[in-house]
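[job 4471] stage=fold_predict status=RUNNING
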Amino acid sequence: MSAEASVRSAILAREDADRSHRMRLLLAWLASLALVLVIAGYGLNYYTLSSENRPFSPKHDLLKPSGPIGIKLGMLGVLLFFLIYLYPLRKKWGWLGRQGNSRHWLDFHVVLGTTAPIIIAFHASFKFGNIAGMAFWSMLCVTISGFVGRYLYAQVPRNLNAAELSMKEMRDTEESLRQELATQKLAFGSRMEALYDLPTPEDVEHMPMLVALLYMILIDLRRPFQISLLRLQAAGFGAWLVSLFGMRRTSDLKLERGINIARRQSALSKRILFLQRTQQVFNLWHVVHRPFSYAFAILAILHISLVLYMGYRI
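[job 4471] inference complete, writing structure tokens
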């Protein structure tokens, strides 16, 4: 088998693995959503009662934190959260680190980190006081910071081996996209340029770290609206409506090719521009994320130990 055929085979295998991962990830999100909706649907008329009226609800004995359902929700929430620690542990345990792809693990890490605090909130029947409350708010901080970490992780361009691209490789790719984009600009002019309107390197260098993070997020958030406007201007109002207000592809293949090139070039240029800042924010992110995750683990263990030892009935 030639080297080119081997590379092509490796690429196809990786694409199949990514496709399977996306399906599993979608199923995980749907399962989590279904679980939350079932619990919320069953307990809605209980959780919306005031603390004074809840004891008179026929569901109180089941859904209170010490009730049969309440306890099981607490156990499930803690189990989900401690499963989250498999992701950092795989970096320390060689056999675990060889299982699967790091990015795939991170995606399920996010699913678990999102679902766990919601389940814990149902367990606590949305009463957050004492040690249990401190544990919950710590867990919520972990979840929010986890979303930020997942975003930052995606900002580091990676090659087919999931290793970081060198700056030269990144700039070569960017230059190739710029040359291809030049032909598209002849057809769509300045409207296409709006998709990769970025600050100067000097502006980025002088930005505080948190401002740089917010600027990166703003660039990504505004891009779909810029693409929608481009589709409206280039394809017309009818095609824009059919494409769900420009959020989906139109039938104009030339336009969509130009948009795809501009979007890829914009994303890569942004990552190159903010690469140093991304690393700095990553360092700051670890300072926030890890202590909160450790704090939750300690508080959760303390809460469970006190409940078991003192036999609380809430």
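[job 4471] summary: Residues 159-166 have pLDDT under 50 and may be disordered.
[job 4471] exit 0
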